[in-house]
C-alpha cells in the first residue's frame, strides 16, 4: 500500500476523536485513543514532528534544573516517563552518561548534591550511579577537551536519556496507524465549527489541493506552539470583540551541529549555568556533536524561525569559555531553531524570562468536545496523552473505553527490536539500524545497495515514500533521515537524487527548490 495515495479521513465516518497536530503530543493522543478502541483520526498541516518535536536537544530527561526550582512533581513524572520511553523503542531511545565539570569546590559540591538527589528521585528507575570524578578521571572521560579539564577542579557523572526525536515521532505515527487510527500529514484544517454530531471540520489536502469535510464527536488541538492560532480561528467568533487570551509564550532555542572530530566527546557534557540562566549541552548525536541551547522569548511563531546573531554569539562564546573549544562559523555543519510552547504564567505576565517559565503542560476544555493541550516536553508525551483522554471522559464528552485503559506504558512502538536484541548507539552515525525491526522490509526494496550520501540508500527513500508518509524532499532529508540537521550542505547535494525517487514513487512534486532554499537557511555563511 502506498501511503501517499490516502485522501484523508473517511468522510462517511463520524470520528470519536479528531486530533489536530502531528507532534509528540498529538501522536501520543492518537496512540492512546486508538489502543482504547476509539475511532480516531489525526491530521498534520505539514509533516509529523516538523515543528518543535524534531528540533529538541535530543534528551529524554527528568529536568535537573527543575529540581533546583523545587518542581519535584514535574521531575518525578518525567523520570518515570523517561524509563517508560526507553523501553518502548530501545533502538531510538537509550541511556546516556553526562559529565559535569566543576570550576570551584563549592559549585562542584552543590552540583553533586543536586545530581545525587536527582538519582535518588529516580529510585529503581535509575539509569546508572552518580559518581564524583577527580580531575584525572575527568580527563580520561573527556580526552578531547583538555582546556575544559584543566580549568576544572573535579567533575560529576550522572545518567539521563537520549533519543532520536523525529524517528520516534514517526514510530508513534506508525503505531497509531497499526492500532486503527487514520493518520495523515500535509493536511491542514481550513475550518472548524460545532455541528449536530459534535464538530464539523474542513480539511485541505496538500497532496491534491482538494477540500473535504469530516465529522468528529471531539477535537483535540495539539498544535504545539501554534495552538493559539487555531483557538482564535474557532473561538474568536464567539468572543466578539473581546480577544481570545493566548495560552502560549513562544521561546526559541538555537542548536549548532559540528563534526565529532571538531568537538570530540563520547559522553554528553553539561554546563550547569550559562549567562542566560540555562544549561549548556554538548551531546554526541548521530555521528556528530550537538551544542545547545538558547532561550529567547518571541512574540510570534514562524514555521522556520531564524537564529539571532546574539544567540549565535552566545553559543560560540559559551563553547569557547566553558568547553575550551574555539569554533568558527565554518565549523558549523547545520544550525537550526526550535520553538518551545511555554505555558503563560503570572511570572511571564510580569516580565519573567522564558527560562523561568513552566514546562508543565495545560489541558483546557474550550467548549463541549473541544480541548486544547499545550506545554510539556517530549519526555512526558505519553502521560500527557493519557490525561487528555481522561479529561474527555471525565467531562462526559466521550464514554469510557469499551476496551478499558490502554496499557501504552507496555505497548512497544512499531520498529522496536525484540527483547535482548543488541542495538546501535544513537551517538553513532545514522544507518539502517534506525528502522529497528523494519530493517528487513527496507532491504527488500530496490536500491538497497545504492548509496545517496551519508548512508542513505535508494531503498530507504522508497520505503519512506511507501510506508512512512514521505512526500517531499524535506520530509525525507529533514526527518526520515536527518541529513539537513547534520550537514545542510551535504543534504543539498543529496536532494536532487532524492527528489527524483520521491517523484517516481508518489507522482507528486517533491518541492526540491523549497528544500534547497531551506538548506541555505540551515547553513552559516563563512
Structural class: alpha+beta
**Mean pLDDT value:** 92
Any idea what the CATH architecture of the domain at 3-52 and 167-247 and 356-394 is? 3-Layer(bba) Sandwich
What is the CATH domain class of the domain at 3-52 and 167-247 and 356-394?
A: Alpha Beta
- The CATH homologous superfamily of the domain at 3-52 and 167-247 and 356-394 is named FAD/NAD(P)-binding domain
What percentage of residues falls in helices of 4 or more residues? 25-40%
Radius of gyration: 23 Å
Number of helices: 17
Strand tally: 20
Distance between the termini: 45 Å
* Main sheet properties: 10 strands, mixed
Secondary structure layout plus pairing:
Layout: E1 14-20, H1 24-35, E2 40-43, E3 59-60, H2 64-68, H3 72-88, E4 93-102, H4 105-122, E5 131-134, H5 135-141, H6 146-150, E6 154-163, H7 165-178, E7 182-184, E8 187-195, E9 198-205, E10 211-221, H8 227-239, E11 248-259, E12 268-271, E13 280-285, E14 288-292, E15 296-297, H9 309-323, E16 332-343, H10 346-349, E17 362-367, E18 370-374, H11 381-394, H12 439-443, E19 451-453, E20 456-457, H13 458-467, H14 473-480, H15 483-486, H16 488-506, H17 512-521
Helix pairs in contact: 1-7, 1-11, 13-16, 16-17
In short:
This protein has 526 residues and is α+β, with helices and mostly antiparallel strands. Helices cover 34% and strands 24% of the residues.
Notes on the structure:
This protein starts with 13 loop residues before the first strand and ends in a 5-residue tail after the last helix. Among the domains are: 3-52 and 167-247 and 356-394, FAD/NAD(P)-binding domain (3-Layer(bba) Sandwich); 248-343, 2-Layer Sandwich (D-Amino Acid Oxidase, Chain A, domain 2), CATH 3.30.9.10; 432-521, Helicase, Ruva Protein, domain 3 (Orthogonal Bundle), CATH 1.10.8.870. The chain has 17 helices and 20 strands. The strands form 3 sheets. Strands 3, 4, 5, 6, 11, 12, 13, 14, 15 and 16 form a 10-stranded mixed sheet that branches. Strands 1, 2, 7, 8, 9, 10, 17 and 18 form an 8-stranded mixed sheet that branches. A two-stranded antiparallel ribbon has the order 19-20. The chain has helices at residues 24-35, 64-68, 72-88, 105-122, 135-141, 146-150, 165-178, 227-239, 309-323, 346-349, 381-394, 439-443, 458-467, 473-480, 483-486, 488-506, 512-521; strands spanning 14-20, 40-43, 59-60, 93-102, 131-134, 154-163, 182-184, 187-195, 198-205, 211-221, 248-259, 268-271, 280-285, 288-292, 296-297, 332-343, 362-367, 370-374, 451-453, 456-457. It is an alpha+beta fold.
Amino acid at each position: 500500500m502506498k501511503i501517499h495515495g490516502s485522501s484523508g479521513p473517511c468522510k462517511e465516518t463520524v470520528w470519536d476523536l479528531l486530533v489536530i497536530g502531528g507532534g509528540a503530543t498529538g501522536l501520543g493522543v492518537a496512540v492512546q485513543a486508538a489502543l482504547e478502541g476509539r475511532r480516531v483520526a489525526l491530521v498534520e498541516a505539514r509533516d509529523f514532528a516538523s515543528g518543535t518535536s524534531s528540533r529538541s536537544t535530543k534528551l529524554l530527561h527528568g529536568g535537573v534544573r527543575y529540581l533546583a526550582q523545587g518542581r519535584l512533581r514535574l521531575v518525578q513524572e518525567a523520570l518515570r516517563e523517561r524509563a517508560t520511553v526507553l523501553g518502548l523503542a530501545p533502538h531510538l531511545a537509550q541511556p546516556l552518561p553526562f559529565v559535569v565539570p566543576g570550576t570551584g569546590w563549592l559549585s562542584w559540591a552543590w552540583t553533586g548534591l543536586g545530581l545525587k538527589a536527582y538519582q535518588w528521585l529516580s529510585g529503581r528507575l535509575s539509569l546508572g550511579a552518580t559518581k564524583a570524578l577527580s580531575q584525572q578521571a575527568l580527563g580520561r572521560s573527556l580526552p578531547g577537551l583538555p582546556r575544559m579539564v584543566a580549568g576544572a577542579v573535579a567533575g560529576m557523572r550522572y545518567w539521563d536519556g537520549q533519543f532520536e526525536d523525529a524517528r520516534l515521532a514517526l514510530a508513534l505515527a506508525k503505531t497509531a496507524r497499526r492500532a486503527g487510527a487514520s493518520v495523515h500529514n500535509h493536511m491542514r484544517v481550513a475550518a472548524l465549527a460545532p455541528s449536530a454530531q459534535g464538530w464539523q471540520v474542513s480539511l485541505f489536502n496538500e497532496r491534491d489541493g482538494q477540500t473535504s469535510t469530516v465529522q468528529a464527536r471531539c477535537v483535540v488541538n495539539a498544535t504545539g506552539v501554534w495552538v493559539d492560532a487555531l483557538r482564535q480561528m474557532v473561538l474568536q467568533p464567539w468572543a466578539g470583540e473581546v480577544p481570545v487570551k493566548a495560552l502560549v509564550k513562544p521561546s526559541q532555542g538555537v542548536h549548532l551541529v559540528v563534526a565529532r572530530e571538531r568537538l570530540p566527546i563520547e559522553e554528553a557534557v553539561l554546563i550547569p549555568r550559562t549567562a542566560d540562566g540555562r544549561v549548556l549541552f554538548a551531546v554526541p548525536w548521530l555521528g556528530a556533536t550537538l551544542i545547545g541551547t538558547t532561550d529567547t522569548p518571541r512574540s510570534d511563531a514562524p514555521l522556520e524561525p531564524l537564529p539571532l546573531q546574539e544567540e549565535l554569539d552566545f553559543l560560540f562564546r559559551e563553547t569557547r569559555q566553558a568547553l575550551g573549544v574555539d569554533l568558527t562559523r565554518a565549523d558549523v555543519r547545520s544550525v537550526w531553531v526550535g520553538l518551545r510552547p511555554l505555558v503563560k504564567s503570572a511570572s511571564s505576565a510580569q516580565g519573567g524570562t522564558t527560562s523561568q517559565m513552566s514546562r508543565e503542560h495545560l489541558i483546557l476544555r474550550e467548549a463541549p468536545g473541544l480541548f486544547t493541550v499545550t506545554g510539556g516536553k517530549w519526555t512526558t508525551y505519553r502521560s500527557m496523552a493519557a490525561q487528555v483522554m481522561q479529561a474527555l471522559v471525565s467531562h462526559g464528552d466521550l464514554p469510557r473505553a469499551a476496551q478499558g485503559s490502554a496499557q501504552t506504558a507496555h505497548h512497544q512502538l512499531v520498529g522496536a527490536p525484540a527483547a535482548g536484541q543488541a542495538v546501535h548507539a544513537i551517538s553513532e552515525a545514522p544507518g539502517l539500524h534506525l528502522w529497528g525491526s523494519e530493517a528487513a522490509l527496507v532491504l527488500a526494496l530496490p536500491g538497497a545497495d545504492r548509496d545517496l550520501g551519508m548512508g542513505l540508500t535508494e531503498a530507504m527513500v522508497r520505503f519512506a515514500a511507501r510506508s512512512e508518509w514521505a512526500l517531499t524532499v524535506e520530509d525525507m532529508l529533514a526527518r526520515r533521515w536527518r541529513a539537513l540537521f547534520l550537514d545542510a550542505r551535504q543534504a543539498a547535494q543529496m536532494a536532487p537524487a532524492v527528489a527524483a525517487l520521491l517523484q517516481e514513487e508518489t507522482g507528486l512534486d517533491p518541492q526540491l527548490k523549497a528544500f534547497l532554499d531551506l538548506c541555505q537557511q540551515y547553513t552559516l555563511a563563512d
